[in-house]
Amino acid sequence: MNVLIFDSPKEATEAAFDIVMKRLEAGLKTIGLATGSTPLKLYEKLRSMDIDVSHVTTVNLDEYVGLEPSDPQSYNYYMNEELFKYMNFSATYIPNGVAEDLEKECERYEEILKNHPVDLQILGMGPNGHIGFNEPGTSFDSVTHITELTPSTREANKRFFEKEEDVPTKAITMGISSIMSAKEVLMLAFGEAKAEAVRRMIDEPVTVDCPASVLQNHSNAVIILDKEAASKLGRNK
Ligand SMILES: N[C@@H]1[C@@H](O)[C@H](O)[C@@H](COP(=O)(O)O)O[C@@H]1O
After folding, report:
1. CA distances, 166 to each of 65, 86, 92, 159 (Å)
2. Strand order in the sheet with 170-173
3. Which residues of 113-151 are buried (b: 16+ CB within 10 A; e: fewer)?
């Protein structure tokens, strides 16, 4: 793991942006994308650039089960609004959370991932250490699957919904093994709410109890933190 710590989310985002731009210039074919508030400024910078990405395919990590792509809380909607409608990607893939047969949808998505091996995966993390929607306890061998969201994740994500009851209880997510197949991973975590999960990801042994800790096993993972997210690092050493 290559851990980079910056004074502010702004500087951290700039560093992430530079890495993404370098990889695009070097001919990256497939980029894995994440949602949540953490990469918003990164996407804002990317969409403001006048760059040709017609040779680039995107694959997203996850989607809520039961939300139509037209639902403003869906990750389909988020990606369209934040990035896709401004950029000429060759193809953009996000799991379909309203597929009639969700198991088939997971298989279809794994096929897409096989056909589009991810060169660079952008990742965020949940305050409980989840990546994508792989909650604590998820097997490191997991591929795209349906997952039950934990009460803490529903609580953390309820800020995007009008009422707590509106937060979906399930999601489709790329599995941990699907995420680990990326050639390079760029994990972003900002703010004190992530500090404990960041500490467990970096300073503690790899465990399914903190899914992000699996990145210790990745040969090319860059972790970009602001100083708040990094504030609990190194205390056990
Ligand atoms: N499934 C997504 C994750 O992929 C994301 O990393 C996480 C963090 O969100 P935020 O960046 O808003 O803290 O939110 C959701 O749970």
Report:
1. 12, 29, 26, 11
2. 62-64, 170-173, 145-148
3. beebebbbbbbbbbbbbbbbbbbbebebebbbbbbebbe
Q: What is the pLDDT of residues 53-97, one digit of tens each?
A: 999 999 999 999 999 999 999 999 999 999 999 999 999 999 999
The H or E element spanning position 79 is helix 75-82
Give catalytic status of residue 128 as yes or no: yes
Ligand 1 mean position to 101 CA, how many Å? 25
Choose the residue to mutate in 149, 157, 161 for probing ligand 1, maximizing ligand atoms within 8 Å of C-beta: 157
How far is Cα 188 from Cα 121, in angstroms, rounded to an integer? 11
Q: Does the pLDDT value for residue 48 go beyond 80?
A: yes
Query: What pTM does this model have?
Result: 0.96
How far is the C-alpha of 34 from the C-alpha of 15, rounded, in Å? 17
Domains and CATH numbers, the chain: 2-226 (3.40.50.1360)
The pLDDT tens digits of the residues spanning 143-162 come to 999 999 999 889 888 888 98
What is the 3-class SS of 205-236, one letter each residue? CCCCCCHHHHHHHCCCEEEEEECCCCCCCCCC
3-state secondary structure of 21: helix
